Amino acid sequence: MAAVRFLPFISILIFLTLPTLCFSLSDEDILITLKKSFTQGDLNSWIPGSSPCLKKWVGVMCSGETIIGLHLTGLRLSGSVDVQALLQLRGLRTISLVRNSFTGPIPEFNKLGTLRAVYLSNNQFSGEIPNNYFTSMGSLKKVWLNENKFTGNIPDSLMQLPHLVEIHLEGNQFSGTIPSLKYPNVVTSLNLTHNNLKGEIPESFSKFKASIFEGNVGLCGKPLEIDCDKVNQSEASNPSGENQGSDSNAKVAIAITTLVVLLFFVIASIISARRRRDDDFSILSREPLREEVLQVQVPESTRRKPAESSRRSSSDSKRGSSQQANKNGMLELVMVNDDKGAFGLQDLMKAAAEVLGNGGLGSAYKAVMANGLAVVVKRMRELNKLGKDGFDVEMRRFGKLRHPNILTPLAYHFRREEKLIVSEYMPKGSLLYVLHGDRGIIHADLNWPTRLKIIQGIAHGLSFIHTEFATYEVPHGNLKSSNVLLTENYDPLLSDYAFQPLINASNAAQGLFAYKSPEYLQHQQVSPKSDVYCLGLVILEIMTGKFPSQYLSNGKGGIDIVQWVQTSISENQVEELIDPEIANDTGSVNQMRQLLQIGAACTESNPDQRLDMKEAINRIQEVN
Ligand SMILES: *[C@@H]1O[C@H](CO)[C@@H](O)[C@H](O)[C@H]1NC(C)=O
Ligand SMILES: *[C@@H]1O[C@H](CO)[C@@H](O)[C@H](O)[C@H]1NC(C)=O
After folding, report:
1. For residue 5, is it within any domain?
2. 7: in domain
3. Can you give the CATH number for the domain in which 381 is found?
4. Model-level pTM?
5. Range of the domain at 96
6. What pLDDT, in 10s, does the model give residues 390-449?
7. Which single residue of 48, 67, 279, 325 has CA 20 to 30 Å from 203?
8. Dihedral over Cα of 323, 325, 329, 332: its sign
């Protein structure tokens, strides 16, 4: 009885509060509403009464207190997605639902017109995607729909997006012909394998590798070596009455294709296991969501050593510990900088590590030690020019460097066959990652003032290195965006500098980026101006937001930004170069123009016409 009597009152109350709720929902309420639309999932940290950003709710990416991304990966989520609630997260730029159990049609994310990235990989989404679905999503850069059960045609509107960099549709049941791609030069990563696509591949895809079309039996035309005319002829000469024959032919064809593909992967994995030196691109193309655990390989003798070693190395971090290591034949970590406290190899070995990626000189791992300090351990196989003592001298010299834009190593570990260099971990990662690798995290913070600060900080650090290592043939020698780390406040820190004395000439040419400068490629010469070239490239990369093809040893992928910038400047089309993400900052266009000009002057292929480091730095500091 009582319940019945209260009912009208309650519904009036709901009716009255509803409009205000719609306009003033807190981020917390929005996410709780979203959580309710899921039928299950591991979102235990999403508790009403706590703040998503401050309390670090799982999967919630924040910039300050603004939610910029939902990275709900592998949380066993299913049910529906309350897009209406998400509409109220004004700062939201990225949604990832990768590796969950969602089913049914694609959610209406197209109502969220400001999204930059949508990752729906490895779910059970199905059905057709409306042809104009993507029309309202002009800011999209990354679309990952792979490993679902989508059917129907690939939407035309997807292929028309102006800023699309990554398109992954592999492992679905998309059928029909492939719509033409409107901006093929922007796209750096594309995969259409294992669908039911057929017909002639549009001209706009001809620059891509044939392998991105594998597993679609009916496709023909460039870049495949299947002539569409021949396909049409054989279809014509094969009357439809003989279905059985063509069916089993198709099966044989599929079997053969599968075999070839399998063989290809076996060979490819053997080759890639042998190839130690990976491009920076592999950092980006690495499966972003798989975390591997690394066992740092240390000989038995060290492993059995009791934990006292770490204590000892902590107090006498000077000469003592390395001599100790020599005497006992033990391998130890030598501290060269104990600003962050001392630690030993034992502490590192106890830490769970995560692979960060491969760079020109080796691989990098992140390790969080018991005391909470997070470090990056770089395994360098190429730094083997000097013996133990010479290496020690160089590392101690690095350890003494102090500059706000320089990453000073903390410790090293020397073995003949490889060296480990340990530095503090920077949570924002590298500039390369922040600019291009934003799987699930879009750095909405990367606005113009921040980019200018990064460029000026790099120049500042480089100026220090050119003073400190002035006698070197090329003082930094390895400047590129993956060797610029960013602090919490986006202050840049240069790393992997001044390696020239540590590395043999042949390894230097392979591993150090200054050796990719035009003067080295043409005349096998490097000079301090090679650092200027690398600086110019980083400036242009920051200004355009594009991945430079110069970072790839095979030149395939990315954009030749040096060429592009020279052309646009000569055609007086400078504005088209500016990254769309900062282009709306119209008050700063003048500064952007100045920096594009400086970047172009730094990347002149003739070193005589290139700025020298002093001029470059002065001009960068004067931008106003
Ligand atoms: C495309 O995706 C498939 C499935 O994940 C993968 O095996 C293949 O290597 C990818 N191909 C290219 C060219 O990226
Ligand atoms: C092959 O036939 C299809 C229709 O059957 C047609 O659309 C296509 O243009 C033909 N291709 C060539 C290269 O003649």
Report:
1. no
2. no
3. 3.30.200.20
4. 0.52
5. 16-237
6. 999 999 999 999 999 999 999 998 888 778 899 999 888 888 888 886 543 555 678 899
7. 279
8. negative
